[in-house]
Amino acid sequence: MSDCLFCKIVAGEIPAELLYEDDHVVAFKDINPQAPMHHLIIPKKHISTINDLTINDEALIGKMYLAAKALAEKEGVEDDGYRTVMNCGESGGQTVFHIHLHVLAGRNMQWPPG
Ligand code: 5GP
Ligand code: ZN
């Protein structure tokens, strides 16, 4: 999608601190980190929200979680723990409408989230 911020990051049209890339997903640092480690994992394919997922995206979502695990291991936070979040829709806190998995670590997370 030409006017999507995260599609522009995938295309290299907007710079980002890339951490991981394969044929299906890209990971980069969040521009406004909410924890000492705050990474985003996105599919290269544009999908606006969780509501737009289809059965064809089943493996893609799995790849996003495997990338989260790999990033946590790379950062050495896998034993201490980390939080993965995917917001959906306005009331869910989603502000960029290209799905993304937040991976946060380096501080104690609170529950319930705000
Ligand atoms: P959401 O609120 O949709 O769940 O999360 C969107 C995330 O994207 C936010 O944490 C925000 O800081 C991050 N973000 C917004 N614009 C940019 C950008 O241009 N570059 C990067 N790296 N992150 C961004
Ligand atoms: Zn997009």
What does this structure look like?
The protein has 114 residues and is an alpha+beta fold. It has one domain: HIT family, subunit A, CATH 3.30.428. Helix content is 22%, strand content 21%. The protein is built from two helices and five strands. It has a five-stranded antiparallel beta sheet with strand order 1-2-3-5-4, with helices on one face. Strand 1 and strand 2 form a beta hairpin. The longest helix is centred in the middle third of the chain and has 18 residues. The radius of gyration is 14 Å and the shape is globular. The protein starts with a helix and ends in a 9-residue tail after the last strand. Bound molecules: guanosine-5'-monophosphate (5GP) and zinc ion. Guanosine-5'-monophosphate binds next to strand 2.
